[in-house]
Automatic annotation (TrEMBL):
InterPro entries, per database record: Acetoacetate_decarboxylase, ADC_dom_sf
Lineage: Bacteria, Bacillati, Bacillota, Clostridia, Eubacteriales
UniProt-recorded name of the protein: Acetoacetate decarboxylase family protein
Record region (Disordered): 1-24
Coiled coil: none
Length: 267
């Protein structure tokens, strides 16, 4: 009779599907390396509407929010994903609000949309509440052309074929501070429900965590005027964040590595 080896000893991989070789998982093990082109727009929202989005340990720091439209390129530590644009390139839209935890200012992410399954899975592991959506961004070029006016850029978010956001930035300041709130060091909620009958209101994982990125590089930050419209239907909860006042727009590049997370508290 052949020896039987427990499946837990033969199946490998950081995420499912776990296999004998461990190379078919949707996400490779960290470190994860990213570089991206960012268009960001600061704005103020209705404090009474957005405050309930913060998990109970956090408090609202101000009504200032920021939306980040980002075109990313990614690679793992052990692969050369950047040589395959289909694997490595994706776009996402991140909405952040200004919160604090135990007196420390800390952004919080109520909504985020991404257009690739691998990026969605990496985000869920960290606590980003990612959903599928299509982000589109105009590009700048060194050549003068009416197709790419100097300093002017635009970005949109569509979900299930419906336009949710449209933004535009005209930069005029070449070396400004980063927009706020920043996605570096954001607070996130890691949540995984339990399908077992009787446990639906008792999630398997429910905790507040803080991002820990390393080897962060930021290019010079260009700043200028901006416009931002939320065209989502009024009955969609994103409408709670509809801009009351647009503050400023930004363009910059960022690079970082992710391989750690800081647990803050169980929820």
């Amino acid at each position: 009779m052949a020896n039987k080896t427990p499946a837990s000893d033969t199946l490998k991989g950081f995420t499912s599907p776990r296999t004998p070789k461990g190379t078919s998982g949707i996400v490779a093990p960290p470190p994860w390396h990213y570089v991206g082109q960012v268009t960001a727009i600061e704005f103020e929202a209705d404090g009474e509407k957005i405050a309930p989005y913060l998990p109970a340990p956090m408090q609202m720091e101000s009504t200032q929010c920021c939306v980040y439209f980002i075109e990313w390129q990614y690679t793992s530590e052990t692969t050369e994903d950047y040589l395959d644009p289909v694997e490595s390139q994706y776009r996402e839209t991140i909405l952040l609000m200004s919160g604090s935890y135990k007196g420390e200012a800390m952004a919080y992410c109520p909504f985020i949309w991404v257009d690739q399954d691998k990026a969605l899975m990496r985000g869920l592991i960290q606590g980003w509440p990612k959903q599928l959506g299509s982000t589109h961004m105009s590009r700048s070029y060194a050549l003068e052309s009416k197709a790419a006016p100097t300093g002017l850029s635009a970005a949109t978010l569509s979900v299930n074929g419906e336009r949710y956001m449209a933004g535009r930035v005209q930069v005029h300041e070449a070396d400004a501070n980063m927009p706020a709130p920043s996605f570096a060091g954001s607070a996130l909620v890691r949540y995984f429900p339990d399908l077992v009958k009787g446990n639906h209101q008792q999630p398997l994982v429910h905790e507040l965590v803080q991002l820990k990125s390393r080897d962060v590089q930021i290019s010079k930050v260009a700043k200028g005027e901006a416009m931002l419209d939320f065209t989502v239907m009024a009955d969609h909860e994103l409408s709670d964040f509809s801009p009351k006042k647009v503050l400023a727009g930004y363009r910059f590049q960022v690079a970082l590595t992710v391989d750690d997370l800081k647990p803050l508290t169980k929820l």
